[in-house]
Design a protein that fits this description.
Blueprint lengths: L3 H12 L4 E8 L4 E8 L6 H14 L8 E6 L9 H6 L4 E6 L4 E9 L3 E11 L6 E11 L3 E6 L6
Length: about 160
C-alpha cells in the first residue's frame, strides 16, 4: 500500500523555502495519487507540478506497486479547504454556500481555524423611508455551518 505520509514528506521537502503549500493528497484504492498544491502569491505552474511529480516518483517503487500520479494547482473555482487559503483571500470577495442552502457573496475580513468574518451590503427598508437603504453588515460564520467557500473571480476589461 502506498504511504500518504511518505508522499507528504516528499512534497513538503520539494516545496520547502517557497510560498507553495499542500492543499490535499489522496490515494485511491487503485493507487491513483492526487496532489493539490497552492501558493500564497506566485501561483503554481506546470513546471512546479512536474517537479513535484518527479520527486514523488523517485521515492516510490513501481516494482513494488504500480501507481498513477497527478499533481495540480488549486484551481480558481476550487473550494477553499484550509486556513492558509482563506488567509490569502482576506480583503477579497468570496461566495459562501451554507449547509442549509443559503448563499452569500461577501468580502472576507478575517479567517481563523474554525470561523471566518465577512462584510457585505444588504438592502433593507428603514423606518419612515419609502426606498430601501443599503447598509453594511458584518458577520462571523462558523465553518462547520458552511458547505463550500470559493474565491470570486472577476475579469476586468
Amino acid at each position: 500500500m502506498i504511504n500518504i505520509e511518505k508522499i507528504k514528506e516528499t512534497v513538503e521537502l520539494k516545496i520547502a523555502g517557497s510560498d507553495k503549500f499542500i492543499v490535499d493528497i489522496n490515494v485511491s484504492m487503485d493507487n491513483k495519487i492526487n496532489i493539490i498544491v497552492d501558493s500564497d502569491s506566485s501561483g503554481v505552474n506546470i513546471n512546479d507540478c512536474a517537479d513535484i511529480s518527479r520527486a514523488v516518483e523517485d521515492v516510490l517503487n513501481r516494482d513494488d506497486e504500480d501507481f498513477e500520479i497527478e499533481v495540480a494547482s488549486a484551481g480558481l473555482s476550487s473550494p477553499l479547504k484550509m486556513l492558509r487559503q482563506y488567509q490569502k483571500n482576506i480583503n477579497k470577495d468570496i461566495d459562501i454556500v451554507f449547509a442549509n442552502g443559503r448563499k452569500l457573496t461577501a468580502k472576507l475580513v478575517e479567517a481563523a481555524a474554525d470561523s471566518i468574518d465577512v462584510e457585505y451590503e444588504e438592502k433593507i427598508i428603514a423606518e419612515n423611508k419609502k426606498r430601501k437603504q443599503t447598509i453594511t453588515k458584518n458577520e462571523t460564520i462558523m465553518l462547520n455551518d458552511v458547505k463550500s467557500v470559493k474565491a470570486v473571480v472577476l475579469f476586468k476589461n
